[in-house]
């Protein structure tokens, strides 16, 4: 597959760039910093060298004084190296450190604080539809997701299975994050049923046969390794009694599809609906990240179960967005958005669906999901995608 220009732009100073495996962090840093001194901690011999002698980084940099940029790939594998990085930042202020990682778990525990705020943290995401342009096809995205390494594979289905195996082996087993990898594998299947819904830990525990407290720890691992995220409930100036628990999402639709078991009792439209909603949320999440996290993303749900899938709230944005895997718009599909606008008249309402027509009903803009995603660009406000 030809190279795809990514929307993320490199900051001027040192920074962390966190994102799941396969999202293209290493390729991006290679293109943006071609002359950098690169330390790849995924290479076994490099990892052994620096784990035994972190100070070797200082010696390496001093031996190449013309190199002003140092890229350290998968820095979470060796948090002790950050003490050396911090020292170098203090003494050699002209150096730029670019540190990529696919897990925030160890960094949150020990590493980031050592840098005393000298390196900001950014996130890297799967492809946005507008990055792919004409190569983007909604149906393909719903089946295989938007992870670059999967998108470019000859057999995306096999690549997704291999990706999950790699995650279990390298992120979980090798890092000794869980004691029983079999229990964790069953948990991954069970948690896939919660994609796009409120997470019920008791149900997940029962489905995978693992204690609730252990399941809670597993969910924390998914979030720390960037495989999953939450959407909190939108409660600003609430006029009704609101739900209390966040919604849970796996970070990519293809991963959701690969993990989600299917059987005679599973309705395809139910799985397709969760896949579509997850894709839209993931795309808006990437849009927001590349804009500097300027908006709060959440969902709206009352105690009486009236729900809007996504609320985008910020200084210049206030949107309520409902996503439906349907080609026809029924009156009941628009009622949650109408209820939201009763409580928040300042909000703009958007209904995304699988139809082909651009419509406006009851003051609510209804757009084909395909068109919206193709026009979503971090340099532009959400309204430009409409």
Number of domains: 2
Number of helices: 16
Low-pLDDT segments, ≥5 res:
none
The overall strand count is 14
Strand order of the largest sheet: 9-10-11-12-14-13
Largest sheet: 6 strands, mixed
- Radius of gyration from the alpha-carbon trace, in angstroms: 22 Å
Structural class: alpha/beta
Overall pLDDT confidence:
92
Shape: globular
Order of helices and strands: EHEHHEHEHEHHHHHEHHEEHHEEEHEEEH
Q: Quote the beta fraction.
A: 15-25%
The termini sit apart by 29 Å
Regarding quaternary structure, what we see is single chain
Percentage of residues in helical conformation: 40-55%
Structure description:
The protein has helices at residues 25-32, 44-52, 56-63, 81-91, 105-114, 129-132, 138-144, 148-151, 156-173, 181-191, 201-208, 212-224, 253-259, 268-290, 331-343, 369-375; strands spanning 15-18, 37-40, 69-73, 96-101, 120-123, 197-198, 228-231, 247-250, 295-301, 307-314, 318-323, 348-353, 359-361, 364-368. With 386 residues, the protein is α/β, with parallel strands linked by helices. It folds into two domains: 15-123, Rossmann fold; 129-385, no CATH class. The strands form three sheets. The chain has a six-stranded mixed sheet with strand order 9-10-11-12-14-13. A five-stranded parallel sheet has the order 2-3-4-1-5. A hairpin with a 5-residue loop joins strand 9 and strand 10. Helix 7 (138-144) crosses helix 13, helix 10 crosses helix 11 and helix 13 (253-259) packs antiparallel against helix 14 (268-290). The longest helix has 23 residues, at 268-290.
């Amino acid at each position: 597959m030809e190279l795809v220009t990514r929307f993320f732009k490199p900051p001027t100073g040192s920074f962390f760039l966190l994102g799941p495996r396969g999202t293209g962090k290493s390729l991006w840093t290679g293109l943006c910093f071609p002359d950098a001194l690169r330390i790849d901690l995924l290479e076994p011999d490099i990892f052994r060298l620096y784990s035994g002698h972190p100070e070797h980084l200082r010696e390496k940099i001093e031996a190449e004084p013309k190199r002003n940029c140092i890229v350290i790939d998968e820095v979470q594998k060796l948090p002790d190296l950050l003490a050396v990085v911090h020292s170098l930042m203090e003494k050699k202020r002209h150096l730029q450190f670019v540190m990529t990682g696919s897990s925030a778990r160890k960094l949150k525990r020990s590493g980031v604080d050592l840098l005393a705020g000298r390196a900001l943290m950014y996130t890297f995401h799967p492809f946005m539809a507008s990055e792919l342009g004409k190569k983007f096809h909604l149906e393909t995205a719903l089946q295989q997701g938007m992870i670059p390494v999967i998108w470019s594979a000859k057999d995306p289905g096999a690549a997704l299975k291999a990706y999950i195996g790699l995650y279990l082996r390298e992120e979980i087993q090798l890092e000794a994050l869980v004691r029983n990898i079999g229990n964790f594998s069953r948990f991954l299947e069970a948690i896939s049923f919660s994609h796009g819904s409120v997470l019920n830990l008791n149900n997940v525990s029962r489905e995978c046969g693992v204690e609730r407290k252990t399941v809670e720890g597993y969910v924390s691992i998914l979030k720390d390794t960037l495989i999953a995220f939450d959407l909190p409930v939108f409660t600003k100036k609430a006029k009704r009694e609101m739900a209390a628990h966040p919604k849970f999402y796996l970070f990519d639709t293809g991963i959701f599809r690969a993990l989600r078991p299917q059987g005679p009792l599973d309705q395809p439209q139910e799985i397709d609906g969760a896949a579509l909603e997850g894709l839209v949320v993931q795309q808006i999440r990437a849009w927001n990240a590349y804009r500097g996290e300027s908006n709060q993303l959440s969902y709206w749900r009352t105690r009486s179960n009236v729900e809007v899938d996504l609320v985008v709230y910020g200084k210049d944005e206030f949107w309520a967005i409902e996503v439906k895997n349907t080609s026809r718009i029924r009156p009941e599909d628009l009622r949650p958005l109408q209820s939201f606008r009763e409580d928040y008249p300042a909000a703009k309402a958007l209904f995304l669906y699988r139809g082909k027509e651009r419509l406006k009903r009851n003051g609510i803009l209804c757009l084909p999901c395909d068109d919206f995603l193709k026009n979503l660009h971090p340099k532009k406000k959400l309204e430009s995608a409409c």
